[in-house]
């Protein structure tokens, strides 16, 4: 147990990055690969790094998070002092002048005040990996830095994306850039001294700033002793529906899936009591992930099928992602499609998107 380290998962700045997938939920509770949520990876990495108490700044759409995280033991928070707090917005302080994600740091300041931790590990859920930050935390503490940013170095053909890059010199971090030729990616994870964090929060509130990282840290970087630590492992970045679709399809590779989910540590998630998948006569599956509780009478290829989905006789699902509790009636054909939860596709219906722009069907729709 690392009593010197507190965890904060800040979802407020990433409310709309995943478009239609976050209409009814926060980014952290977006389902992934059939049985996980994006927040599962962040929590698993924090637990494996020694974090015993974590606060989740949930944003406005927090109901699904409350349901998903209601049993701390399933995520590795063991012992009577272990806690995971889902902290929704609080508008009850009439004197509060904080804005943006500073509202969460201000309204839930007791999380910091009551913690005996000397350092805080802060992350979102746009970056996921099956790794931990033990070495980054060790480097941060031994160096005595105010802030240590967690990064990743990539080389070769660097794909264009809005992921921030880090400008470094020796062991120091000099700034951030969107220069697409810079292969030093910033994961959005950093470790900061608690006293420094409290000072930055107060500075931002006093000066009507709205974003802790961009206005309190990035714009004031020269005022702090900063460094970086690079991780080395399987990583994914989520910044759009397209990136979500691409990352899901990439993990259908058997070896990459095994390395990602069972490489260093098993990714923890909410325990399911659904029955095993039922494969009826004439059903077929190729290169796909099929969760438990599924009834399969049709064919599935290169797809992700979540829990409690029914795929009727003669139905075809190809290059698609199907969320939980969907019903795909006989003869339907889906290709390059994302179905949100509780969607019903009627008999014989055809939906075809493209690999560059998958067709997304909103939650509880009937087509």
Automatic annotation (TrEMBL):
Stretch forming the signal peptide: none
Residue span, Glucose-1-phosphate adenylyltransferase/Bifunctional protein GlmU-like C-terminal hexapeptide domain: 282-353
Nucleotidyl transferase domain boundaries: 20-153
GO biological process: one example: glycogen biosynthetic process
One of the record's GO molecular function terms: glucose-1-phosphate adenylyltransferase activity
Superkingdom of origin: Bacteria
Coiled coil spans: none
Listed name of the protein: Glucose-1-phosphate adenylyltransferase subunit GlgD
Gene: glgD
């Amino acid at each position: 147990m690392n009593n010197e380290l507190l965890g904060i998962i800040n979802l407020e700045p990433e409310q709309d990055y995943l478009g239609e997938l976050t209409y009814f939920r926060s980014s952290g509770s977006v389902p992934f690969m059939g049985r996980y949520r994006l927040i599962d990876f962040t929590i698993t990495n924090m637990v494996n790094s020694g974090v015993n108490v974590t606060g989740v700044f949930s944003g406005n759409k927090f109901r699904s998070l409350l349901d998903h995280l209601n049993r701390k033991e399933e995520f590795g928070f063991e012992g009577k002092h272990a806690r995971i707090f889902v902290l929704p917005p609080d508008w009850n302080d009439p004197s509060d002048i904080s804005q943006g994600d500073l509202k969460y740091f201000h309204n839930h300041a007791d999380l910091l005040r009551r913690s005996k931790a000397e350092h805080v590990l802060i992350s979102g859920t746009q970056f996921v990996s099956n790794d931990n930050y033990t070495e980054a935390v060790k480097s941060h503490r031994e160096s005595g830095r105010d802030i240590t940013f967690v990064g990743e170095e990539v080389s070769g053909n660097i794909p264009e994306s809005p992921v921030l890059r880090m400008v470094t010199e020796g062991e120091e971090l000099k700034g951030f850039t969107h220069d697409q030729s810079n292969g030093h990616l910033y994961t959005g994870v950093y470790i900061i001294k608690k006293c420094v964090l409290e000072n930055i929060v107060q500075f931002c509130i006093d000066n009507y700033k709205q974003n802790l990282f961009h206005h309190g840290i990035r714009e004031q970087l020269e005022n702090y002793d900063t460094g970086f630590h690079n991780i080395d492992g399987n990583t994914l970045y989520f910044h759009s529906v397209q990136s979500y679709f691409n990352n899901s399809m990439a993990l259908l590779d058997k070896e990459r899936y095994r390395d990602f989910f069972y490489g260093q540590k098993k990714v923890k998630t909410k325990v399911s009591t659904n029955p095993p998948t039922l494969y009826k006569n004439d059903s077929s599956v190729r290169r796909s992930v099929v969760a438990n509780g599924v009834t399969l009478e049709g064919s599935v290829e290169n797809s992700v099928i979540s829990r409690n989905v029914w795929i009727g006789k003669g139905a075809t699902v190809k290059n698609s992602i199907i969320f939980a509790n969907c019903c795909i009636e006989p003869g339907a054909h889906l290709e390059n499609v994302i179905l949100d939860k509780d969607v019903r596709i009627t008999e014989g219906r055809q939906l075809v998107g493209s690999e560059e722009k998958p067709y997304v069907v909103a939650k509880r729709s009937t087509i």
